[in-house]
Amino acid sequence: MGVIMSKLLQIAIASLALVATGVSHADVATTYQKTCATCHDSGALNAPKKGDKATWDKLKTQKGMDTLVKNTKKGMPQMPAKGLCQSCSDDEFRALIEYMAK
């Protein structure tokens, strides 16, 4: 029962994050497929994989969401600035990170 409640809580928190940003789940999923999936589905160039909750939780704990968004915007050696989403806002990047983390 505890595992089920934990999963439901995770889903609820992720949903609230999307609602709070005004970004719909469908929009995030579409944007992810267009701009992030190429690397984050396969882990290309050491990109943290979508759904690798342990890795994403570690990144969020160690760096914090603000730093993850900042790094996404400025780019990293293995990732161009803003990934492939030049029009994404900070809120959209947050939603994409949360989407990949679940």
Automatic annotation (TrEMBL):
Coiled coil ranges: none
PANTHER family named among the record's database cross-references: CYTOCHROME-RELATED, PTHR40942
Upper lineage: Bacteria, Pseudomonadati, Pseudomonadota, Gammaproteobacteria, Moraxellales
Cytochrome c domain residues: 17-102
The keyword Magnesium is assigned to this record: no
Taxonomic superkingdom: Bacteria
Transmembrane parts of this sequence: none
GO molecular function terms attached to this record: electron transfer activity; heme binding; iron ion binding
Protein name as annotated: Cytochrome c5 family protein
Key words, A-Z: Electron transport, Heme, Iron, Metal-binding, Signal, Transport
